[in-house]
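#dry-run=false #mode=assembly
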Amino acid sequence: MLYLILPCLANAAEIDPLSLVGGLKRELPARTAFTEVRFSHMYERAVVARGELEYLGPGRLGKRVDTPYTETTTIADGQVNVQRGSRKPRQISLDRVPELEGFLRGFSALLGGDATALQRDFELTSSGDTAHWQLRLAPKDKRLGKRIDAIEVDGGGDTARCFRIIDADDDVSILLVEQLAAAGLPDPLIRKSVERICRDGVATP
Amino acid sequence: MQRFALLVGWVAVLVGVAAYAAHALKLSTDLRSFMPPAQTADQKLLMEQIGEGPGSRLLLLAIHGEADERLAELSRALSVALRGDAHFSQVVNGEFDAGMLDETLLPYRYLLTSSFDDEPLNEALLADELGQRVEDLGSPAATLLKPLLPRDPTLEIMKLAERWSPPKQPLVREGVWFSPANEALLLVQTHAAGFDPAAQGEAVAAIQSSFESINGVGGKAELVISGPGYFTVLVNASTRGESEWLGRISTVGFILLLLLAYRSIAVLGLAALPIASGALAGVAAVAVVFTEMHGITLAFGFTLLGVAQEYPIRLLSHRRAGETALESVRGLWPLLLTAIASACIAYLAFFASGVTGLMQLAVFTISGLLVAGFSTRYLLPRVLPLKFRDAADTPGLGTVWNWLEALPRPRWLPPVLLLFAALMLWSASTPFWQNDLAALTPVPQDLMQREGRLRAALGAPDVRYLLIVEAADAEGVLELSEKIAPRIDALTGQGAVAAAELPSRYLPSIATQRLRQARLPDRSALAAMLGAAETDLPFRAGLFEPFLDDVEKARTLEPLTPAVFASSPIGARIDAMLVKREGHWLGLGTIIGMQDPAAFDALSHETGGAVRLLDLKGASESLVAAYRERILRAFGIAIVLLVATVFVAFRDLRRAWHVLAPMTLATILVLAVLRFGGTSLSLFHLVALTLAAGLGLHYALFFERPTPDAAEARRTLHATLVCVISALLVFALLAASSLPVLRAIGLTVSLGVGFHFCLSILMARKGRTRDAR
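#status=ok
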């Protein structure tokens, strides 16, 4: 009995959240396609968006949505620039919404594999084994905590598969990235089955 | 024994009068009770707006000394604390406040917003907005917007919040306002008027104690307060502090001087009785006649009453062996009475001026001088100790007298001095009059600079200019201000002003609200539009039920009026911008960063003056100028009365000339020296000049008096020297003050005393008894 458990324990001991984050570091610029599935109590059905996520260095992010609408969001130097379709681009200074800034800073630190920066804004915990790990980032800032419960990351080895942003009201937005970005989505599209794909790293056939 | 009883009785009466005066007289600190009644419409508005206008009730707060994050936290905590404080009508720090409209007022947003003016709420517009919301929900801002969506899918609350945020937004960091110099900024409006030091003091103390409790013990952050109200508190405290401090020093000096001159402690106390009686009588008289008096008037009154200190000194110096104090005072009385009577008659002119402040001054001074004079004549001699030292025996006095007598008295001196004075007056390049009200209560330059810096960083409105929008009623004001809004925008575009805020920015007219109401779809129409707009969108059925409710409610609401709106934070702003006057209403638009006031002329012309720019500084200066004109007229009459009184008293042209000529020349010289030194004259200088002239009249009167013997001449010199030195002690110290108000009075009186003394000696008649000693 014991010899069955031991390897698991050894495996579990190796899952250190800091080294997990460190493992996510990539050559710049790092790009990945994504599929975002958003479940909200405001929606009758999940909303799916596809596009590309881009990490250009500390505090610099880009998100391009191609379907079902076109939108390019770039974040740099504390400024958020949103360009939707043919509309006039909008600029938002992150200084106006400090809680959002903490969130984006954390997200960018996560993509940059910068554990130290990440720990400034979030409490880090992890579980699982090296092939199927899960990282949970809970915001330290109370104001952000009122809006976001946690960011969860599923991955295996040094690759993230899914980012899950869980709002305080339990709405969730799941970003499937890297090899899962092009994965087929389950039908019916429900939260549990998308989460299972993330955990297993295998798309539904 | 009888002397002692009289003394006790005298002091008892004084205590009684003091108790009455303290009970009956209300001391006002409102600048308006010092000012003359307003004549023009702008002056009337100024009198209301001075201290009560939206700009002057603002306090600017800056927190510095810590990292940005901590400063932002302090700013949020302080704004929460101050919003709960009854002293303040508005507290803003740049935070987005969705609670800007009360829950009950929320449906009104469809009457307040201009979003659907160009294109009414319809299916296409709604579909477009809802599509954007889906995108918003996929963006990082989703968590911020989510709570608003079901009730407000077109985000009208956000649009209104944007419209109502200050027209010149300060920098925002960490969610709150910051200055370029790394200070977290807050803007606080007090309920109290800006120039009410007591109420402003309370408000400032409330801010400070809130901040201290938030900052915690050992907190490194520091709070800086600025704004007209704060300056009122500061100037009041520093003026009082410094004048008390200087007063204490000069009191000590004065006591030493009297001890040295009369070598008696008892005499010291007794000599203070007449002037104390005079002052108390003055206060009591004002209390009976007016019940309220301005602090500045009282200060002027005490200054002018300084002349009365001469009366007991004259008596004390002129006592001589073999004569009772009563007999001595009888000998002096005709001259003293001439001085008192001429001063009192002169002050009657002030009483006739019709300006409340000046009338109070006249009542105070006349009753004070009379009581001080008559108590010196009838009471003081009866309580003085029998033993005394003859002032004529003071060592060295004879030498001084001989030296003074031996001085040449060239006849050409007065005309030459007059010529010099004329040259100095002519060459002075600064404006003759100081009309700036702020110069009466100056604020240190570095604080003014800080104020300017914070005001610019906050985009806080100018305190100098107001844009007046006048109409028959509040609705008319709002309609007119809606009508001219595009014109003001154009002026802003041209760069004439950085920004302007009209009342209609906060509240549309009832007509506009009704128009918007009529264009809102009814519930079933809106539900149909919504259904169609939502077809391709993921929103849950029934999610926007609260939106349907609010629009339906908005359709039947009574339009929002200033009175109903006033209960909310934003409503308080519109309330401050609308003023009811007899028969009409005024809207007070605020101006930020005025560049070209003349650019508003055309607008004013087109609207027949209904829309006009009010320059508060200009209006207040015209008010001060008008006030000064009345004071000068009173002075002119006073001088004529004084000259007439002296001539009547002497019934001798030559003697009268010898008294009046040095006085006049000395006054002209003081003016010339002040002007040559670059001083622009204010009311304070005028009052100080009057005091100096009153003292000069005494010097001239006594030096002109024929003396029977050398000893009596020495006594005159003794008395005059004690008077001159005591006046210089008090006023030279004031002249050294750091506060322009005190300096103006001190310098003027000191110069005056010097010139009057020298000239009354140099222009006195020659050929009096030489002293043998």
